[in-house]
Amino acid sequence: MAENGSEEKKKRVVVIGGGIAGSLLCKTLHKHHHFDFTLIDSKEYFEITWAKLRAMVEPSFAKRTVIDHHEYLPGASIITSDAIGIDEQCQVSTAEGRQIAFDYLVIATGHLTNSHLTKTERLRQFEADYEKIKSSDTILIVGGGPSGVELAGEIVVDFPAKKVKLVHRGSRLLEFISETAGKKALDWLTARNVEVMLGQSVDLDSGSDGVYLTSSGETIVADCHFICTSEPIGSSWMKETILKYSLDDRGRLMVDKNLRVKGFANIFAIGDVTDVPELKQGYLAQKHALVVANNLKLLIRGEEGKMVKYYPATSALAIVSLGRREALAYILCVAMIGRIPGLIKSKDLFVGKTRRQLGLQA
């Protein structure tokens, strides 16, 4: 009888989104005897997204970075579907027609992705990207943020004979950090014959026979292109839910110091979907996940007054990989580039560390 009573007292936790924040939260709660948790994700796997650019030049690398949810959450309740609704009865509706009740809800939907691919299809996509790069003489990259710079670095290091052209609508590269850092990245790329065009956009629909038109009227000839611009926040579906008034004008969920969605005592949000005033980075999203995991445990014990507060990062910290051996690091407002920053990130891109956090072999 005692066991049955204990089971009845378990709190139902639903996590929407199995990205970098949602996956770590689920792993932290997995098999916790006070929780029954369900992960709802539009894809069947967790992907270490910052490693995808290496996987485009080395497809075998992706086998360590695309991880089936059941691999790190054995026996867990996982629903592969889009969440489409949240109602006043504390239920989440999914696109496949299910309704999942919760005592606590955590939203970790991050940014929109091509999330309806299966794991096998995603791995094949990396193979296709590799073949595209391998068979092309000239490659166009659209976007000069960290993804665009890192992809350019991966290509020129692994395929130094390729001609890479990078177009960015901003006035400098890596606008999320300092002008000095952007200049160092620009110098590194141009020294390796990457043609960087700033202050311009590209009409990709104009790419007939590999000829693309820029906003300034210039033409770019390339055999293929890759888009490395940021995706929209994954919150548009919430506009028709009870959270519609909790979204700010940029589509982010407004949260308090405990990462609870404003206006709701039992709904949390973590990662890029929140309005926390800091850079949207993977390691910060993981910090969100650990704060909310602690707060859920405190709420279970009736210790709401002891809930942990999250303090936004006050200074930017970033490491932008430049191929397999070098990187650009921006730490305490100082930009460094070369082998030393590369030792921190570029060889393994934190893949081993992330896998260990999920209880997997590095």
UniProtKB/TrEMBL annotation:
It comes from the Eukaryota. GO terms for cellular component: cytoplasm. Residues 12-279 form the FAD/NAD(P)-binding domain. Transmembrane segments: none annotated. GO terms for molecular function: electron-transferring-flavoprotein dehydrogenase activity; flavin adenine dinucleotide binding. Pfam families: Pyr_redox_2. Keywords: FAD, Flavoprotein, Oxidoreductase. Belongs to the FAD-dependent oxidoreductase family. Putative FAD-dependent oxidoreductase. This is FAD/NAD(P)-binding domain-containing protein. It comes from Ambrosia artemisiifolia. The lineage of its organism: Eukaryota, Viridiplantae, Streptophyta, Embryophyta, Tracheophyta.
